[in-house]
């Protein structure tokens, strides 16, 4: 579980969210740029979680979509899990 929680995608998304929260502390108005920054952060978080889900499914031997970042590495991930 630790390998999933501390993946670079999740850490990056978390730090990006912290930066956005810090920028909201000032009395700056909420503009369309701020809305786009939050939208971008949400997309980044969703992609990071999706990559974690795909990695877990591939390591369990399940089929993953072709557009996944771990597509083509399923056998390697499954072999690593079986040997551990």
Question: Quick summary of this structure?
Answer:
With 84 residues, the chain is mainly α. The protein has helices spanning 2-5, 8-25, 32-59, 74-83. It has one domain.
Task: Explain this structure.
- There is one protein chain.
- Helix content is 71%, strand content 0%.
- The chain is built from four helices and no strands.
- Helix 2 packs antiparallel against helix 3.
- The longest helix has 28 residues.
- The radius of gyration is 17 Å and the shape is elongated.
For the structure shown, list the relevant keywords:
84 residues; 71% helix
Enumerate the spans where pLDDT stays under 50 for 5 or more consecutive residues: none
- Average per-residue pLDDT, rounded, comes to 80
Query: What share of residues are in beta strands?
Result: under 5%
Figure out the total of helices: 4
Based on helices, strands and strand pairing, what is the structural class? Answer: mainly alpha
| Largest sheet geometry | none
How helical, in percent, are the residues?
Answer: over 70%
What is the 3D form?
A: elongated
How many independent structural domains?
1
From the N-terminal CA to the C-terminal CA, the straight-line distance is 14 Å
Number of separate strands: 0
Radius of gyration: 17 Å
Pattern of helices and strands: HHHH
């Amino acid at each position: 579980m630790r390998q999933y929680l501390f993946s670079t995608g999740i850490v990056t998304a978390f730090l990006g969210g912290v930066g956005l929260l810090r920028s909201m502390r000032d009395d700056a108005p909420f503009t369309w740029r701020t809305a786009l920054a939050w939208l971008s952060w949400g997309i980044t978080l969703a992609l990071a979680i999706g990559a974690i889900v795909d990695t877990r499914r591939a390591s369990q031997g399940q089929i993953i979509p072709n557009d996944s970042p771990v597509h083509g590495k399923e056998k390697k991930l499954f072999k690593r899990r079986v040997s551990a």
